Amino acid sequence: MIVRRNRTTQPNVVRKIVRRTRPAVGNPAPQRHIIRRHNTPGAGVIPGAPPQPKGIPLQAVRRSLPIALALLLLATTLAGGTWLYRSPHLRIQTIQVEGLQRIPQHTIVETSNALGQSMITADLPAIQRAISALPLVASVRVQRDWPTTLRITVQERRPWGTWEQAGVDYIIDREGVVIAVGEHLGTGAPAIRSSEAGTRLVGDRVDPQAVDAAAQIYELLPQQLGTTVAEVAFITGKGIQVTTTEGTIALFGDSSSIAYKLAVWAALTAEARQRQITYTTIDLRYGNRPVLQ
User: Fold this and answer.
1) 88-156: what CATH class?
2) What is the pLDDT of residue 77?
């Protein structure tokens, strides 16, 4: 700073420039600023000293604690499941079979193929399908009986009538499935005599239309005509033929419209009695054009 002083001018005097380190009187003081410095890595570290361990913030610990607990629970569950799967204490050791009459128990056990399987992973629907495929089985139910038992409840096909073919009797159910060979149900059970050749095996299915027709005839004939069935025959080329206990023969043809054909037969029988007409055979194969002989 150059300071001028009001002094009289003196000849031959050299003027000097005076520098001052402090502000002159009356000049404002320089502004001062506070600067915040952030800690930098390595600041304050003494060279050659071992590194100091860093602490984990408490907030980070709280955030990671639920995740750690969930992972621990998952690991425990997987370990427990693996132990249960491999444990010999949860294997199928006993198979209890109920409802059998004709089927041997060992057949059900062998078909199930369940002994030694895990009680947890055993495929019960697959076992049920395998047993249902047996010819004498109508329905089956498979259940777990903890800890080591499998319970199988079987409903066998029920005998309904007798199918006679080529001189051999076969017991069949309502669906026409052969249940037994060389056996005959007692008096009163439906019986169908077939003119077909050949033999049948257990599990074979006879003509279902003939069975349906015979079932309707055995049920409706006593109600509509007041008589009973002596025999139902299934004749190739003629269809269903019925013989009553009075010796009357009725030709039905196919198994369609059995109820209607019986109603026509009942009406003709009533009219024949009024006119005192006797007949031994009635042909109902042509619907509303019956023929009496």
Assistant:
1) alpha beta
2) 72
